Amino acid sequence: MLQRIQTIYLFLAFVATGILPFFIPLWTLTDGAAFYFMQNQIYIIVLGLSTTLTLLSIVSFKKRQNQFVIGRLNIILNLILLGLFVYRSLNVSGETLAVSEKGIGMFLPVLAIVLLVLANKAIKKDEDLVKSVDRLR
Questions:
Q1: Among 99, 81, 112, 89, which residue's Cα sits nearest to residue 35?
Q2: In Å, how far are 34, 51, 75, 103 from 58, measured between CA atoms?
Q3: Could you give the angle at which helices 5-14 and 41-59 cross, rounded to 10 degrees?
Q4: How many CB atoms lie within 10 A of CB 23?
Q5: Quick check: 120 and 74 in contact, CB under 8 A?
Q6: What pTM did the predictor assign?
Q7: Burial class (CB in 10 A: 0-12, 13-18, 19+), 73
Q8: At residue 31, does pLDDT exceed 60?
Q9: Nearest to 100, CA basis, from 35, 20, 43
């Protein structure tokens, strides 16, 4: 059923990883140019995988266990992406005397992780409900 709350959470995570990075810069370089994720191939790959896993999780609503596992993998992938962002921002800020400004785009993986955790919590709740009903039969 697509009308469950986890589908809303997963859709919002899709927006955070698949749509917003095109419009929100990760940080501003020292020369004033905005740095988007499209300027680094690793970020493109990791965000693409995260978006793909989110869509796969949305369409696999009939298999709750697989949906839960895909959600966990997506959380791990977003943690890796967040680590890459932090590593890059620490290196960028230490290169020159002028410190670059960090953008709000660096927090998109954090938003995605929170939404994926909420979705996994709702999936687990549904799975427990189905198991309890099967136990009564």
A1: 89
A2: 32, 11, 15, 29
A3: 160
A4: 8
A5: no
A6: 0.86
A7: middle
A8: yes
A9: 35
The arithmetic mean of pLDDT across residues 72-99, rounded, is: 79
Binned at pLDDT 50, 70 and 90, residue 28 comes out as confident
Q: How large is the average pLDDT for residues 83-92?
A: 81
- Contact assessment for residue 105 and residue 25, using Cβ atoms and an 8 Å cutoff: yes
CA distance 121 to 128: 11
Enter the DSSP assignment of 94: T
pLDDT tier, 136 (very low <50, low <70, confident <90, very high otherwise): low
116-127-125 Cα angle (round to 5): 55
In sequence order, what DSSP letters do the residues of 50-78 get, joined into one string? HHHHHHHHHHTTT-HHHHHHHHHHHHHHH
Rounded CA gap, 56 and 59, in Å? 5
Cβ–Cβ under 8 Å, residues 74 and 116: yes
**What one-character DSSP code corresponds to residue 92?**
H
